[in-house]
Write a structure and sequence with these properties.
heterodimer, A: mainly beta, 11 strands, about 0% helix, B: about 110 residues, 6-stranded mixed β-sheet, 5-stranded antiparallel β-sheet, globular
Chain lengths: ~110, ~110
């Protein structure tokens, strides 16, 4: 059973550039989450989807961030324009969303904005 | 007040000892509780989940939940150097069991 798949694993870009992170959840999982992890702030929930519909985007830092889930097997997190303070590890996670279902994390994308 | 609080550590224990990791949460309606292990440079991986008061054992790991006192703990028996990692506590609430609140994690060092 394939886990959550994220790409790219590493992304280095210059300030002002657009960055797109990609995620494929586990098949059959109805919930998809985007998290950001930094040393200072730990794991922060940015947004999550249920059946491809955004449910809670209160964690999205500002309008430069956007996320989409066009179908059950694909989601993107876009940052435009990127800034050095966006440097972090971005994790995608999915769950079945049935009562006590745990989160399953992807390997993450390490983003560096110079 | 943070939803989930953990001591950042590091917690150092000798190999073979019991490591005790603690987590407190602020909301009494919290419903589900999870422990994740995260090695440096890796993603969090699920170790244990617990939903009702008491103890739950899985191999060398025991999760303990006390809803009255609003804390959950993880005991690791016979600690091994390979257990050295950051342990994250996660909690979901009754009003939205799909929204996970994570603590900042406790770094555990097991010394050979």
């Amino acid at each position: 059973d394939a886990g959550v798949i994220q790409s790219p694993r590493h992304e280095v870009t210059e300030m002002g550039q657009e960055v797109t992170l990609r995620c494929k959840p586990i098949s059959g999982h109805d919930y998809l989450f985007w998290y950001r992890q930094t040393m200072m702030r730990g794991l922060e929930l940015l947004i999550y989807f249920n059946n491809n519909v955004p449910i809670d985007d209160s964690g999205m830092p500002e309008d430069r961030f956007s996320a989409k889930m066009p179908n059950a097997s694909f989601s993107t997190l876009k940052i435009q324009p990127s800034e050095p303070r966006d440097s972090a590890v971005y994790f995608c996670a999915s769950s079945k969303g049935q009562g006590n279902s745990p989160l399953h994390f992807g390997n993450g994308t390490r983003l560096t904005v110079t | 007040q943070k939803e989930v609080e953990q001591n950042s550590g590091p917690l150092s224990v000798p190999e073979g000892a019991i490591a005790s990791l603690n987590c407190t949460y602020s909301d009494r309606v919290s419903q589900s509780f999870f422990w994740y292990r995260q090695y440096s440079g890796k993603s969090p991986e699920l170790i244990m989940s617990i939903y009702s008061n008491g103890d739950k054992e899985d191999g060398r790991f025991t999760a303990q939940l006390n809803k009255a006192s609003q804390y959950v703990s993880l005991l690791i028996r016979d600690s091994q150097p390979s257990d050295s990692a950051t342990y994250l506590c996660a909690v979901t609430k009754g009003d939205n069991f799909n929204k996970f609140y994570f603590g900042s994690g406790t770094k555990l060092n097991v010394k050979p």
